[in-house]
Amino acid sequence: MDSGTAIANGECLGWAARDPSGILSPYKFSRRAVGSNDVSLDIAYCGVCYADLFWTRNKHGHSNYPLVPGHEIVGIIKEVGSNVQRFKVGDYVGVGTYVNSCRECQYCDDGLEVHCSKGAVLTFDGIDVDGIASGYPESYPPELAAPLLCAGITVYTPMIRHSMNQPGKSFGVIGLGGLGHLAVKIGKAFGLKVTVFSTSISKKEEALTLLGADNFVVSSDEQQMKALCNSFDFILDTASGDISFDLYLSLLKTAGVLVLVGFPSEVKFSPGSLILGAKTISGSLTGGTKQTQEMLDFCASNKIYPNIEVIPIQYANEALERMIKKDVKYRFVIDIANSLK
């Protein structure tokens, strides 16, 4: 797991999947020499994301093997290129879902490098050109910072884009996993009235007591759901399971917004569910480097910390299986520095 820790002479050690079984095992590989715009780091921690599972098991149909997953990376800079000015040796830095872009197109100029017209270079299973990293406040514990580089920015980006940062507004979160629990925390920090939708009543206590949500709804309870008709300004779907889009759209107020950051198998709804009430359904990926830095600073200043379970890299395969079973609260983080040797 992870994008590799240096062992000697440019050689790196990671854990890779060799085929669609997704089973991870130690793998040695080489990195290019540090270029003038590069930053090289020793990785300390790496969060485990559901994308790791999708790519290692070729769920999208285009994985290239051997594949070393991991895109919630925190480490310490050990070398910088001659043109690098923002970072220095010894700085803690984070690397998220992509490491480079063309830096010339409209989207890159607007700080939306993840939507680069020529295609952003993914942190794993991408063609590496140059490296780019985002810094974060030194006061923020590095093991807790790792999940922010994917899960955190994935929920923060649409919240800012759709003005889900207005105190007093009503905000629904579908799903209470790695993304959902951070959406709840960020929503509360924005001053929103937060409701969690989940298929599992067992998550009620943790949603209300541990995470501070204002309300909890069992989404399979038709009576509870109908009682909330026209109640929400915003709903963020962080789950990948299928939902009734018509039902959730009915929960929105006039001009309300439903945003998808998960990947349901299909999106199907009646046109009237959008047209009547001038409602919006939208999708969102992660975020650009500028907004990622903004999110990191916001989480630090508001003391927003993900709930994590720190594991050694030797436990990575078991962690992926537990993640499938939703047996984690709420993000695994691999202690790379102390276990990948």
From TrEMBL:
Residues 22-334 form the Enoyl reductase (ER) domain. It holds the Pfam family ADH_N. The keyword rRNA-binding does not apply. Its cofactor is Zn(2+). SMART domains: PKS_ER. Keywords: Metal-binding, Oxidoreductase, Zinc. GO terms for molecular function: metal ion binding; oxidoreductase activity. InterPro entries: ADH-like_C, ADH-like_N, ADH_Zn_CS, CAD-like, ER, GroES-like_sf, NAD(P)-bd_dom_sf. Belongs to the zinc-containing alcohol dehydrogenase family. PANTHER family: ALDEHYDE REDUCTASE. This is Cinnamyl alcohol dehydrogenase 1.
